[in-house]
Amino acid sequence: MEKEEWKDGVGANEAENSFSVESNEIEQSKVGIMRALVEAEDPSAKEEDDLMIRRFLRARDQDIERASNLFLKYLSWRRTFVPNGSISTSEITNQLAHNKLFMQGVDKKGRPIVVCFGGRHKQNNLEEFKRFVVYTLDKICSRMPSGQEKFVCIGDLKGWGYSSSDIRGYLAALSILQDCYPERLGKLIMVHVPYIFMTAWKVVYPFIDSNTKKKIIFVENKKLRSTLLSDIDESQLPDTYGGQLPLVPIQDT
């Protein structure tokens, strides 16, 4: 009887592995089909690798048509919004002056850690803030370890108040993240969340797609350190949370 049960277990594992291989093959096939479609519409798509195609495909639940439309919109947006290929620090001096975004260390899955101090953000020039978001995401993506595609963000809202309640800015940042950098966010850990923030959160929440919602967690202050250490080794945890790494401003990484 024990032998038969063991056989069943092996059979189940083999079936699972077979399904995984088959799913990968189907996805690879869809990447090829999508590439042919988007390159026919926009030859500049040839400059993007298969991982980029795959991220857009996954963001649209393997729907080739929807993923292709999103990807083509991204290419058009990129040419218009980032005509020089990158955002320079001279274009976002006011945003950088607030010293609100840092990058240091990796979590236990090897994903880069980004720390964003939301309370330091103030409502100001929307276009410059959008450029700051693109600058930040490009910087993060360029610092991805080999074989890694996603990052983890600690969203620290200590000191957040109505002067930080930039709904237009939040929605713009969300749109850029979801539509232009899909499948880049691995996890968003919200900490030091004041009660008044939930007013802004209720406005923004309906615009967050279902895939992104699954990646967001809110942490109580009393569980902050234990929650962070469940994902991040102390040697990689920013020192502001009791870890060993000093925070490094995003522009200095």
UniProtKB/TrEMBL annotation:
Taxonomy, superkingdom: Eukaryota
A Pfam family the protein falls into: CRAL_TRIO
Record InterPro entries: CRAL-TRIO_dom (IPR001251), CRAL-TRIO_dom_sf (IPR036865), CRAL/TRIO_N_dom (IPR011074), CRAL/TRIO_N_dom_sf (IPR036273)
Domain (CRAL-TRIO) ranges: 89-249
Region (Disordered): 1-23
Name of the protein: CRAL-TRIO domain-containing protein
Organism of this sequence: Carpinus fangiana
